[in-house]
Amino acid sequence: MPVRVLVAADALFGIGDNPVRVALARLLADGLIERDERGAYRLGARAQAVSRQVASWRALERQLRAWTGGWIGVHTAGLRGASRSRLRRHRRALDWLGFRDLLPGLAIRPDNLAGGVEGVRERLVALGLDPETPVFALHGLDPSTDRAARSLWPAEELVAAYRSTRLGLERSERRLAALPEARAMVESFQLGGEAIRRLALDPLLPDQLLPSEERGTLLATMRRYDRVGRACWARFLARFGFVRPPGAPADLRLPAAMGGW
Question: What's the distance, CA 96 to chain centroid?
C-alpha cells in the first residue's frame, strides 16, 4: 500500500500526516511492515501469522472437524517468572485459537480444529508461543472436570455478540448507499473491521458446546458486507492508481482487525 494512500485514508478518520508516518516508522522498526523501493508498505514477516489468522474468517468452515469430546491442552506453568512481553505474546497466541485456562498452568480448547494437535501446535508457535511449550491431546476427564471445561466459554454472551454484530452490519448495509462517500468509507471500515476481529478471534466451539447457526449467519452477512464495503473504497483507491495484485485484494481493514494484537 503506497504511503500516500495510507495518509489520505487516515485523514478520513481525523488522523494527521505526522502521526501516520511516526506509526509507520515504529512498525517498520518492529519488523511488522516492510517497505519496497517505491515507498509502498506491506505486512512484514513478523506479522504474517497474525495476518493469516485475521484473513481466515473467510473460510471458517474449513478450519473445523467433528468433535469427539477430546481436548487440546497447553502446559503454561513453565512461563512463571517470564518477562511481561513474553507472557503477553503467549497469552495472545492462546487467545487467537480460543484457549481458556482450566487450571493454573493449563489452558485447553476442544479438539475440533482441522489438523488436530499437530496443526494447532504449529499455529500457536507461529503466533508467538515458545516452541518448547508442551501442546498435547487430553482425554478422559472426570465428570466434574469435564463440566468445568465445557463451561469455560460464555455461550450466551457469544451468541448475543454474533447477533448484535450481524444486526449492526445489516443496518449499515441498508444505509451505506445513501451516505456521502467519506462517511460510507469510514463506517464500512469500522464495522467491517469489528466483525472481522470477532470472527478471527472466535473460539470456533463445536456444536455440542455452542450451536453454530448464529455464527454462520454472521459469517454470511459479513461476506456480503465485505463486497459492499470494498465497493465503498474502490473509487478512493482508483484515484490513487492503486492496483491490486492478482489474487491478493487490498484490505485496509486488516490492521484494524488486528487491533492491539
Answer: 7
Last residue of a domain, one of 150, 184, 202: 150
Residue 51 included in any domain:
no
d(C-alpha 87, C-alpha 109), whole Å: 19
pLDDT tens, 162-180? Answer: 999 999 999 999 999 999 9
Q: Which of 132, 150, 168 is the last residue of a domain?
A: 150
- pLDDT above 50 (res 246): no
Per-residue pLDDT tens over the stretch 185-208: 999 999 999 999 999 999 999 999
Say if residue 99 is exposed, middle or buried (CB neighbours under 10 Å; 0-12, 13-18, 19+).
buried
| Helix, coil or strand: residue 162 | helix
Look at residue 105 and give its three-state secondary structure: coil
β-bridge partners, 35 = 41
Residue 235 lies in a domain: yes
